[in-house]
Amino acid sequence: MSQVKKQARLPSKTKDSKSPDRELVRVQDLTPEKADQLIWLRARVHTSRAKGKQCFLVLRQQQFNVQALVAVGDRASKQMVKFAANITKESIVDVEAIVRKVEQKIESCSQQDVELHVERIFVISQAEPRLPLQLEDAVRPDGEGEEEGRATVNQDTRLDNRVIDLRTTTSQAVFRLQSGVCQLFRDTLTKKGFVEIQTPKIISAASEGGANVFTVSYFKTSAFLAQSPQLYKQMCICADFDKVFCVGPVFRAEDSNTHRHLTEFVGLDIEMAFNYHYHEVIDSITDTMVQIFKGLRDNFQTEIQTVNKQFPSEPFKFLEPTLRLEYTEAVAMLREAGVEMGDEDDLSTPNEKLLGRLVKEKYDTDFYVLDKYPLAVRPFYTMPDPSNPKYSNSYDMFMRGEEILSGAQRVHDAQLLTERAIHHQIDLEKIKAYIDSFRYGAPPHGGGGIGLERVCMLYLGLHNVRQTSMFPRDPKRLTP
Amino acid sequence: MSQVKKQARLPSKTKDSKSPDRELVRVQDLTPEKADQLIWLRARVHTSRAKGKQCFLVLRQQQFNVQALVAVGDRASKQMVKFAANITKESIVDVEAIVRKVEQKIESCSQQDVELHVERIFVISQAEPRLPLQLEDAVRPDGEGEEEGRATVNQDTRLDNRVIDLRTTTSQAVFRLQSGVCQLFRDTLTKKGFVEIQTPKIISAASEGGANVFTVSYFKTSAFLAQSPQLYKQMCICADFDKVFCVGPVFRAEDSNTHRHLTEFVGLDIEMAFNYHYHEVIDSITDTMVQIFKGLRDNFQTEIQTVNKQFPSEPFKFLEPTLRLEYTEAVAMLREAGVEMGDEDDLSTPNEKLLGRLVKEKYDTDFYVLDKYPLAVRPFYTMPDPSNPKYSNSYDMFMRGEEILSGAQRVHDAQLLTERAIHHQIDLEKIKAYIDSFRYGAPPHGGGGIGLERVCMLYLGLHNVRQTSMFPRDPKRLTP
């Protein structure tokens, strides 16, 4: 017993006796203030160039890098220079070095005013000598350096070797910004009194008729992967949570091989009860988007600039309050531009793009709401417009002419919902649980679902949603 | 064109002309300061009792409720009293009423000092007359009122009618607290410099040998649902994100019908590079848990008390810093208590529970870390203890004697990882992408995965994880 007692401990800092008593500095903190200090650093070998009795290394941590010199002299032997020169690129090393100010700025590094004079160097993790792609190539803007025969990296090579591709300054910036979008989304909604919910992804019935849904083997039966958390969000509204949001994967078994479709993406979902008009919902969502845009503009400028270096684009423009157009107005604008379409036709993707350009010209905004879609082109649970039954209380939101959100006021009356389902020839038995949710008092409500990867892609002016999905899934890609 | 221009608008507040210009007050704001004011309110009819020329309603919003009186007089007719008396329970109504101070506190309502004298009442959404369960029954503590023949509601009835069950004060408190756990988890880690990542749930290979994994039909091939985001978290570490977390669903095709197993639950996952010792990882995780416990204690006391009323439990105790015991010490404590087990045997669930009681007696904590598990009982990617190859740099964390986290230092060397996989007889072909991730320089790292529902269940002293999952999934339940 005393033996046990003696061994039990409440460690204030679990510094093991074997841990060296060192502080590792961050590359970004290597500034002239640290000049002449002896420091320890852990970093990757970004590049390495041996030249006689010297070896120049560039050491990298994420988007920051610094030049390091190993030179034959008092503290470094010829063998050590040779050892350093042989360390493979992308290996992780610990170095002990003196920080020295430099007379001429080192243009190729983020830390331009200092370099490191290395006294000791250890390899923590050795990279294999042949890298499947070169980081310099992976950040090169398309077309740049072509005359010198310099390569860029194609998308499949990037995605096949995502662990290396994600190390580039561009990827680091993209996914730090993506993390910011999620945080801004949640923080804004939490301040507005929304509650975060967790909804199941394995579901028993494909509510929207069973198209484009993945099937899962579930013990002795089968189930489906949720195409959206909508039904569960709505149940939470019927369960008095009033305003809810959730962030999670949604699954679409759509065989679409386009720049903007994924089979699995992250949905930022909102649902809320409203008092008198579904525009209360639109206002909440557009304000949330505006808070995200402002937060990115104000707090992620470094990341935006970094991405722009490789993928130039115009700064993202938005209005306050957000522009809201009605569907009939959009049709009129398109017709004026020469498009032939019926009043109740859905927008094709090219027409959405064209409309985005027309709206940009006219209103100078990259973000707007298109309201009052024809009822015929929306799902059965969409609330018809009470003043014109050909239209509906539904809306899409667009960034740079591409849809990022689809939403609507939902039918909250079990009787009307049943009628609408019958009209859409949906098997009532399959959606019984859904319809029953509205039988015990349901407030008027609406919401929408935002595609995280699309928001990031379009905000940054990128051209493929795979650039803003860490490990994208499409009909042809399941790995890594 | 002018037509289009005229219709386009930038609404500052999209108040439709049809929206009444009313402000709805919240039930929780109905206090004596509002006495004699005429107000509008939207709420559910919680209970209704007609008595001669009067009808007493209790109107509810989430956990708050207020008494309302409809009485024949100047503003209300006999017909109106009858109309009010016939409104079904759980219907949503709008009322216009005068707030009146009451002389005797209304003990049965959250708003004890006022009642409403109703002048107008409208039904916004009518509930069906027969409710599948009664809210009063659903919040009754087990055993209470049994002699009067009062019912409680069994778990399947609750879950089958979750939309109603979630309206109870207990459910509202549980899931608001759960929302708080997620927020505290993310906020703490964001402050520590962690980046949020999104990992795919559809994966091409079942990395841990293929047991307990759900299969998905994926176009012309098949895929699996991720049992944890671990491999992707690790890839992010290899991709220089340094410290990452994610919150998302994890899937276990385990045919376990216990109080603590779900087939789909929410994982709060952490992974980080460390400098010298994996205890840096343990310290980060335990500190995060402590911040969660403190945040709940300080900001969710109302919710905790509400749940305690129905499900009494001892307050959750924790130490700062967190208690860390080694596996050998735990085995010694168990043996001292009469348990027979070998040094390298895994802990059975009853022994975990017993150990929790022994630790509570000795150290007065409901939360602790068990460190240095026998290597033989951990997955192949677990780093062996360099000083004793029978043990490993791995740990579990426990709340009230039940496991809530499993974690470890991971093998970050491709060669060693290959050897460990062979030792575990794992098909190397299937984990090639995983092993290859470590070939291009990988920092030492570790992490762990926390089960959100278990944390909420055990923090609140509940006894079934289905109580802390909004729409639980187990081998026998796929709906709602």
Automatic annotation (TrEMBL), chains A, B:
Alphabetical UniProt keywords: Acetylation, Aminoacyl-tRNA synthetase, ATP-binding, Cytoplasm, Ligase, Nucleotide-binding, Phosphoprotein, Protein biosynthesis
Region Disordered, residue ranges: 1-23
Q: Which reaction does it catalyse?
A: tRNA(Asp) + L-aspartate + ATP = L-aspartyl-tRNA(Asp) + AMP + diphosphate
Residue intervals of the Aminoacyl-transfer RNA synthetases class-II family profile domain? 175-480
- BP GO annotations: aspartyl-tRNA aminoacylation
Ranges of compositional bias, category Basic and acidic residues = 13-23
Location relative to the cell: Cytoplasm
| EC numbers, comma separated | 6.1.1.12
Recorded hits in InterPro entries, A to Z, give: Aa-tRNA-synt_II, aa-tRNA-synth_II, aa-tRNA-synth_II/BPL/LPL, Asp-tRNA_synthase_2, Asp/Asn-tRNA-synth_IIb, NA-bd_OB-fold, NA-bd_OB_tRNA
Q: Name one GO cellular component term.
A: aminoacyl-tRNA synthetase multienzyme complex
Enzyme superclass (EC): ligase
Origin superkingdom = Eukaryota
Query: Looking at the keywords, is Magnesium present?
Result: no
What's a Gene Ontology MF term here?
A: ATP binding
**The family this protein is said to belong to:** Belongs to the class-II aminoacyl-tRNA synthetase family. Type 2 subfamily.
Job description of the protein: Catalyzes the specific attachment of an amino acid to its cognate tRNA in a 2 step reaction: the amino acid (AA) is first activated by ATP to form AA-AMP and then transferred to the acceptor end of the tRNA.
**SUBUNIT field:** Homodimer. Part of a multisubunit complex that groups tRNA ligases for Arg (RARS1), Asp (DARS1), Gln (QARS1), Ile (IARS1), Leu (LARS1), Lys (KARS1), Met (MARS1) the bifunctional ligase for Glu and Pro (EPRS1) and the auxiliary subunits AIMP1/p43, AIMP2/p38 and EEF1E1/p18.
Which NCBIfam families does UniProt cross-reference here? aspS_nondisc, PRK05159.1
Protein name (record): Aspartate--tRNA ligase, cytoplasmic
- Organism for this UniProt entry: Oreochromis niloticus
Q: What gene does this protein come from?
A: DARS1
